[in-house]
Recover the amino acids of this structure.
């Protein structure tokens, strides 16, 4: 039995920033990329309608959650693996990249085959066996911060993916748990520039889970861009109040359009590579 | 696709308390049961020495962690599945029940066969796929509270195990994450009577991880008993400072002996079914 | 202008523990002393009834809050300085020591004259001007921990009192603010042995504010004694649900009697100097 | 004794926003106003140098802390009331408005006479006696959020000032206390749009105390503007590392110049009334 020495944080710093490129879409410093879609996949009709709308408005990646981990075993848990045909449909009907959450190694092979980007949710940030398995697929991975993880722990979780040879990790700040309960979580906005100081990896923000409130999503998104984020993972639903889950934090298509317009203006002021031709 | 209605917490209350019985050892209201052992398994010699000592001093269950999830991928990760022979050895050399942590479904069958009690660590409390898989083994399960879980979320995680038909769940409070950093975590002592109000399940306390400090383990243990806990999960190591992990929070055999003596006296005052004949 | 050097925590440790003695009542290591009374003073009749009951049942100090700081300016703020005649009445009708909260320097002279012990509430732990003023009265002072203060900050606040020459400080743990909301605050039970390691001062626990729930007060009290506390500051009211404030966390006389009985038994097991003759 | 009924939060909402105007400087919705200056006042030379520099670069209010509450009684506590002559000097040498922290009612009259704006620090947010006294001066008041106050508690503290007839309150978010310790506090950026939803009062952000790190001040400032803040309270010092306190979070004149330039560009994109002629 080999005993490894107790190592301190491996600062995953380097002289240049990691830019991940996928079908001409860039993730990382200097770019601003929007991931959008419903909280969990629902009917084919709603999925396609949402996908076409967000693609038209400048999103580059579609949020396709087949599996939806829920605090209670008695609430809607998502489509399940049967929803994989929705991914195939989206690939043939749109040019969006597809990202999806991985909950266990069970369907990992299928998901890695069908999706472009895999997501580790905040509940699984400490599920090291899963991190290593996902890392080995060599697909880009969105790693969401656990709601009680320090930045050091967040970066060390990323190391579980990097250590198996996959450096295509996109870090996602999604709010931390504090005493404040006006918002669902507390968006730790300074995690963005702090992570930028500590690592070369792309950093995005989830303005939906961090606020839990539709009315705050736009402010959170603009603050994220101003703080230096490289993108957003936003929940968008054509009719938020009729969605199966998290409706109170999803914005609708009109709100998404307004937000993308505002972000385009802001991006110019901040010298970010972001624009939505159709809105200019 | 069937859409389940959004259910509120299923109060897992009932008119009587659940008492789990295993080889004449009882877990639950009225009893006080001690689980003890090193943080992670090390050499056969140290393991056996520790096991014999804690058995002699009244522990009923031995803490046998083959796998040790670590924040950094570069620190000691435990024995791995090869350590299963240590469990067999302990079964033949002692009368202790054995408990072990399950990190993934990979070796679940083997672990469920060799160990008496399975443990879900705090990092995996939200790993619902694992909870269901462990539930299906029908073995007693120690479920540790995630360091940022509310009591409601903790009980709903237990529901993932109960919902597959396994009601042999032992809840373990192990400290929550707060701003205070004198202790490693903040022992939420009132979680004990609060859980006792809310559920019929046994509730134990981990005085080692909650304090992170050897000097506070005895106080935490006594407070846990006085607050109504049904047992303790304590890290004991013959030479804490030479242990592979968490040495600063493990107590040694002499300290364990003193603690068991103190708890015996306290148990009488509190009408708890607990005694250590050899110490009386 | 003299610039003081940046000093690190003055560990207020010493070779022996501070025992404060007042009319044959002792506060500090080895003793266990109960402070009890309503959240805020109400009618003379209720005050006297409560005082006589808790005195009979073994409390040594009566909680006499004339001023009640409230989060909202529109809720009941207490009797005010006119209630000082209640203190005089209690002195003539009982042998209880009287403690009262000081909110500002306005009535400090009067309060220091009429009460035996002054209290700084958690909201004012960082009100350094008040700490120094109260310190200068040379009266014993109960200093309650601010709900977001680390132990280091708590001890440094005590230093503001000690630094003006008054070492009769009784530290009171009353719960810290965390994400958990089943309880009003999270009782940081390990603050008790931790403070005992760090300082020679008496340490007591407020089981009422830390829980916010009547049903948990007894468990909190017993855990406090088992963890090494030197006393308790408990809210008792003859009819909690009719009290002006904090009724949901006050226990009634019967519950107080049961608790004092249980604590007497526990004190024997823990070798604490505490007994209630009338209950033995 | 009149017993007030238990009132819920008084939503201090109204149909229009409060704009405070002082010598042609505006505070409130639509404007963006910068308050800058050293953490605590030091020598006349440094004070004047800093004041002239920040005035030239577009700050409208000078941070003049005569009193500096410190966690330890043994660290530098500020100039004290003798520093009042510095305020007089600044009034004659610059056109800046002056703001200063009030710690107690002791020198309130003098401070209210010499300063333009009074500040209640986060430690005193719950010091209701002080809030009422400061309210009665009828001066504009900056109220800093306590690091463990919910938004509801923050607004109710503001009510203590409003309830005595003074509605010139400027709310200041300055970071809350959480488990994360990479930053000194966690900037609760969403408090800004949340407060804007809940109240008509101006809301500013302190990017210095919330980060505790010089390298993050600019990102925090830009995020604050993008999230909708009406201004900033920034620590600026000509030689941060030689300042008496909080040097690690103060930016120097060059960094301040760069920030004001960036904010001017950002303000245009966000339609905020803010510009620095000398930098355009």
């Amino acid at each position: 039995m080999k005993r490894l020495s107790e190592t301190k944080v491996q600062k995953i710093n380097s002289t240049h920033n990691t830019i991940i490129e996928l079908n001409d879409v860039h993730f990382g410093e200097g770019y601003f990329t929007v991931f959008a879609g419903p909280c969990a996949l629902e009917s084919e009709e709603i999925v396609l309608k949402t996908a076409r709308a967000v693609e038209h408005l400048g999103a580059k990646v579609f949020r396709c959650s087949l599996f939806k981990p829920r605090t209670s075993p008695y609430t809607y848990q998502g489509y399940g693996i049967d929803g994989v045909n929705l991914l195939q449909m989206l690939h043939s009907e749109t040019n969006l990249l597809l990202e999806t959450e991985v909950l266990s190694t069970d369907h990992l092979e299928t998901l890695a085959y069908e999706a472009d980007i895999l997501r580790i949710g905040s509940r699984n940030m400490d599920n090291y066996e899963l991190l290593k398995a996902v890392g080995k697929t060599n697909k880009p991975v969105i790693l969401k911060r656990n709601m009680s993880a320090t930045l050091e722990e967040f970066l060390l979780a990323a190391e579980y993916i990097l250590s198996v040879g996959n450096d295509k990790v996109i870090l996602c700040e999604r709010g931390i748990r504090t005493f404040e309960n006006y918002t669902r979580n507390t968006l730790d906005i300074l995690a963005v520039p702090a992570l930028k100081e500590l690592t070369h990896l792309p950093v995005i923000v989830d303005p939906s889970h961090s606020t839990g409130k539709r009315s705050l999503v736009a402010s959170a998104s603009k603050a994220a861009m101003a703080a230096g984020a490289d993108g957003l993972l936003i929940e968008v639903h054509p009719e938020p109040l009729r969605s199966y889950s998290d409706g109170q934090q999803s914005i609708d298509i009109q709100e998404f359009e307004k937000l993308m317009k505002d972000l385009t203006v802001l991006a110019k002021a901040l010298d970010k590579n972001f624009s939505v031709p159709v809105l200019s």
Q: What stands out?
A: The domain at 20-268 of chain C is CATH 3.20.20.70 (TIM Barrel). Strands of chain C lie at 20-22, 25-27, 33-37, 61-63, 97-101, 117-120, 141-144, 169-173, 203-205, 231-235. Chain C has one domain: 20-268. Chain C touches chain A at residues 177-179, 181 (CB under 8 Å).
